[in-house]
Amino acid sequence: MCKEMCSEKIINLAKAMIKVQKIVRPAMKDKVNSFTQSRYATLNSVMEACSEALINAGIWVTQYPVPVEGDGKLLGLVTKLVHAESGEWQESLIVMPLAKADPQAYGSAMTYARRYGLSAMVGLLTEDDDGNMASQGSVSGTRNQNLPERTTPRIASLKPRKDQFVNNSSQNGVLENLPHIDGINYQQNKAQDGALYITATGNTRNKNGILKEAGFKWNASRKLWWKAA
User: How much is the pTM?
Assistant: First the structure.
């Protein structure tokens, strides 16, 4: 039995969250932190990765600030999951330090806390690439044109190892089972957690229907088609 951080029972909520975690996909790293020159997943990317799965499972998500003890330079944020049908709920509290006590620092810390609070509650895979951003009071980074573009969710590094990629001639049969489409190239990528992802690149225009039938999803922020292997 939980005390204060969840309802008396969470059986239905737990069952629903198991369904969510079976299908939720990793958050895309869609921004570059100008302080560390590393990529990270924004709040929009985190929401995009899990919101549909949560809604389909009948789970309502709410996040709101709460007062916390301190010297006025702390932000408390509650992330709460509610199973709509049963009313069962579970919540967590994250406390973030503010760079300074002003609206800009508050807003930056709020966004940072919402992203990590939601990721932790859902079990979403992300990396802590922008830890310095909130502490420095920077709301967002700017893209470094010299950094190579990431083509799949959560590739381990900006300079991938050779064993992270599998070309079309791979003997594992995964790519060979995909439909042959003129102008489309498939590439299999390995994420940090060991999961495999396939991207479809090239001349994808007017081929949305075929790609969707093959199980690919379009990511607007990255402008690519991808699917779990």
Answer: 0.52
